[in-house]
Specification:
The chain is α/β, with parallel strands linked by helices. It has 14 helices and 24 strands. The strands form 6 sheets. Strands 22-23-1-24 form a 4-stranded mixed beta sheet. Strands 2-15-17-16 form a 4-stranded mixed beta sheet. Bound molecules: ligand EPZ.
Amino acid sequence: MDSILVTGNGPLSGQIPIAGAKNACLTLMPATLLSEEPLTLTNAPRLSDIKTMTALLQSLGAEVSALQDGQVIAMSSHSLTSHVADYDIVRKMRASNLVLGPLLARFGQAVVSLPGGCAIGARPMDLHVEGLEALGAEIELKDGYLHAKAPGGLKGAVHEMRFASVGATENIVMAATLAKGTTVLKNAAREPEIVDLVECLRKMGAQISGEGSSTIEIQGVDRLHGATHQVVTDRIELGTYMLAPAICGGEVELLGGRMRLVESFAAKLDAAGVSVAETDKGLKVTRKNGRVSSVDVVTEPFPGFPTDLQAQMMALMCIAEGTSVLEERIFENRFMHAPELVRMGANIEVHGGTATVTGVERLKGAPVMATDLRASVSLILAGLAAEGETVVSRVYHLDRGYEHVVRKLEGVGAKIERIKGQ
Ligand code: EPZ
């Protein structure tokens, strides 16, 4: 397994291009199942999760080809051969469950493995099931698989979700596009990735309104046609790299970044003494003066502070002046980066869903282990600011969500290299 060697090397400067959003692409790709006509995505990120979703769609009989070095994904599900999403693929990537709604809508049946737990939590699918059952689906759990059917087709309904789940919102909205009648989804998730999905579905002929608010209304149509759609910028990659000049000092411009994608995160950085300014090319980030100050963080559904940036923000708080309390309210076990940061000299106490970080002058490089996608990049951020060398192992986690990390950080002066595993 490869690892990444980072050596603290002082302030950064330059530009980092931000790629298309992994979590938008992973819901846009299954949308191809809703139509017989081709769906093409541009500005797609080159990530292992995209390869996993490609393999899943191909296992269903869809044609999926990556063009222009993976930045364009051309798909067609004209003639599907299966409606079963196998455990082998779904266990690797929970987002595979996003074929459930589209398969049900198009074919009236789907068999999707439960994803199983992952490092950050149990991550059940009850909210997906409740929403699809509200549309008339009959779903039962058998041998670890959800067996779903809607023999007479799905019917529009009014449904309020108990929690604003991102994936459940995506599955229900995609299913409702081909249901008979109107669906009103209440307490819907508001993430930019959902807005991006709806914009793509609308290009395919779907009748949807309210995306980005807590109530989304969908008028079912008989069929959807093909489209070409540009994947929205990845706000989590954006936020991650905004933290690089914050933790190291210097000034970095994030190309393609837009404030509307990271408002609550940028406000937290501002409160911590880091300025974020919109330029015509993106966002420019630099410390206001000297040391960063501690701020408290609570993760919430969008537009609140993103849970996917909690680990990265903790790395910054490790060297901030004062004490920061980070409360993780979305996942039940998302502090596995904390003990690794403590190995680097951080002062962190974790009690349940709350981590208390008392800033230290400087972290010290050490061998550390990535445990999940966002934890892995928080260790790299810490290594950028630490004294000496940090070796982050198990970087396959990183490859799931960050393309060309070494090249992007080297480009702004970081001392970082990838070491091939044995
Ligand atoms: C999406 O996951 C993202 N993944 C996650 O990003 C992100 O952390 C999460 O949304 C929250 O923003 C993709 O978009 C592919 P949820 P999802 O359904 O849809 C519980 C990353 O790092 N829940 O909003 O699975 C669940 O256990 C990944 O890129 C239920 O209880 O998130 C969790 O505690 C990690 N029942 C909370 O809701 C359900 O049926 C949020 O889950 C569904 C979810």
